[in-house]
Amino acid sequence: MSIAELVKKQRTFFHTGTTKDYQFRITQLKKLKQAILLHEQEIMQAVNEDLNKSEFESYLTEIGATLKEVSFTIKHLKQWMKPGRVKTPLLLTGSKSYIYAEPYGLALIIAPWNYPFHLTFAPLIGAISAGNCAVLKPSELTPKTSTVVTKIIQTTFPEEYITVVEGGVEESTALLKEKYDYIFYTGSTHVGKIVMEAAAKQLTPVTLELGGKSPCIVHKDANLDIAAKRIAFGKFLNAGQTCIAPDYLYIHKTKKEEFITTFIENIEEMYDERLENREFTKIVNERHFHRLESYLEGHQIRYGKERDKSILSFPPTLLDNVKWDDKIMQDEIFGPILPIIEYDQIDDIIQVINEQAKPLALYLFTESKDIEQQVLRDVSFGGGCINDTIFQLGTPYLPFGGVGDSGMGSYHGKASFDTFSHKKSVLKQTTAFDFSVRYPHKKHSLSLIKRFFK
Ligand code: NAD
Questions:
Q1: Atom of ligand 1 nearest to the CA of 195
Q2: What would the pLDDT profile of 175-198 be if each residue is shown by its tens digit?
Q3: What is the CATH number of domain 3-210+407-426?
Q4: CA dist list (Å): 100 to 72, 80, 87, 206, 332
């Protein structure tokens, strides 16, 4: 079936109204959850073959995170679907105001390769919960996971409701030629612009979950042991191929050496065994491996074990004394290299960060409320943590998304339901009476109306 026919079939199904029913949505979410549980081993296996993810990482970031999302949605959906009643001004006495969440219709979901299972299914949960049909496009760079995703979808849902189109740029381009009611894209900023351009031609609303260079700041008053441990976890999880990984480290110059010593201890404790057992996530392909290696040229590596190109193994690597005009600082690193830049005054680094594109995440380690307030007030970023990394993702109560070059829109928990729902505002008027002043032909109506608009 051609993409155009598929889209047409979904639109026809959407117009039957089947997907709008609460019972239908809940049943589909429960089916999805069961399917994930049933295919748990296959998902683990596929993600391992594509990216060499350890069982711990696969469960935490792919399966567990998705199950949590679907369970939370099942629990709260009834409440989220209730029309919201809001106040009505005096001018409209006698009427009541409501907000109805209705599905957009057909959603196109394009996913990246770094968390190939979770980043395909997490938006899908939002699309289902809001009552949409969906076309999924997993990443071609993780083909095994793409196959499992397709198998799960095909055995769980009819294609007129939810379907998968596998492939790369060609298939994405063909998909983007069709008209959808919502496009949810996760991936690079560069492709995000292509997606938004295609969406603009059809006036389709979008959520863009993009990337960027997320700063991590360790201030002089930070708890260094905790900071070292949490940054080592957040930076090297998935071999640094995480959209919200700390991209580079700003460390106060008085604490740099102490921090680096502790940081290396933590890296070795967390990852040495994994590296020896070949359980450290690999770099997705040779092109990215070479791109990462090119960042090392001209630098003295402060720390880093031997790389093994034959298995695309790139161990945690530190670069010290990095400058903003170095190659590594020009683009998102998206790999296990942490450049370190020392600073003296927090004001100076805030200024430099604000000269860059708005980051997806920011992490600040400090015990000072003043420093915390200053950074939160003066730097715009998608989301982040004070004294931690990554775990802004760990709660369904925090909407997740970027700002500026790191994206637009957000999801997770209720934010996913909201993202895939149009909010239809409805005023319900009374017919019990009818104020004559609202009509233009009545004498004195202008002077009366003016009183209400003060
Ligand atoms: P990518 O943009 O290369 O690919 C993402 C998806 O877009 C894939 O499905 C791919 O097939 C498709 N695509 C590629 N080129 C296309 C084109 N010309 N037209 C239409 N579709 C196209 O991104 P990636 O390399 O898979 O992922 C890495 C990037 O994604 C990083 O920048 C990372 O920060 C970002 N990311 C962001 C989030 C987030 O939640 N904000 C999550 C994961 C990754």
A1: 20
A2: 999 999 999 999 999 999 999 999
A3: 3.40.605.10
A4: 21, 10, 14, 20, 40
